[in-house]
Specification:
Jasmonate_Hydroxylase-like, oxidoreductase, 8 strands, Heme-degrading monooxygenase HmoA
Length: 186
């Protein structure tokens, strides 16, 4: 399973344009295979910051969506007209917890995202919190750490937290934004 985390900050007055593009892309996305989960979340800390969180069966499926011509036009409009900034992180899920014991991760020096999913916001300042736009009362909290051991330790601190329903750790392969495209695919 592969995750895509797309955090976007629309320009003032452009949030509705973002959601208009989302609506136009929905039938195009439906023609692609491999998407298993998609939800959009509003930041609990930063007004007008939106997170699109997607789970895909493979990185190849993400690449196929990224290369879709209609999606490319929407990406260009976002970069050139609608967005002040954005950040995209793509990575493989290396741990998935739905209750019980979390399986320890192997050592890795790549950055990792710890994602906590549930019915209550996470108050730990290490996390950025978001509430679902589509399913009020559903939350995701994200923290980025620089190695697997730190991700495991952070997750272990939050297992058993009230409202926590699911958690995952993703090993990040690409992390880029509107202004730093070093890791962006070509």
């Amino acid at each position: 399973m592969h995750a895509l985390f797309f955090e976007v900050r629309p320009k003032p007055g452009h949030l509705e344009h973002y959601f208009e593009h989302v609506a136009l892309l929905r039938p195009v996305l439906a023609k692609h295979t491999g998407l298993t989960f998609l939800d959009r979340y509003a930041s609990l800390k930063e007004a007008d910051v939106i997170l699109s969180h997607q789970l895909w069966e493979s990185e190849e499926a993400i690449v196929a969506w990224r290369k879709d011509a209609t999606h490319r036009r929407s990406q260009t409009a976002g970069r050139q007209v609608h967005f002040t900034d954005y950040r995209i992180r793509v990575g493989a899920r290396v741990l998935h917890w739905t209750g019980g014991e979390a399986t320890p991760l192997g050592a890795s020096d790549t950055s990792h995202v710890v994602a906590l999913y549930g019915t209550a916001p996470v108050t730990d300042p290490a996390f950025g919190g978001f509430e679902s736009v589509n399913h009020k009362g559903q939350f995701i909290a994200l923290a980025t750490v620089d190695r697997a051991a730190a991700a495991q330790a952070l997750l272990d601190q939050h297992l058993g937290t009230s409202g926590l329903e699911e958690a995952a750790i993703y090993s990040i392969r690409r992390d880029y934004g509107q202004h730093d495209r070093t890791q962006a695919p070509t």
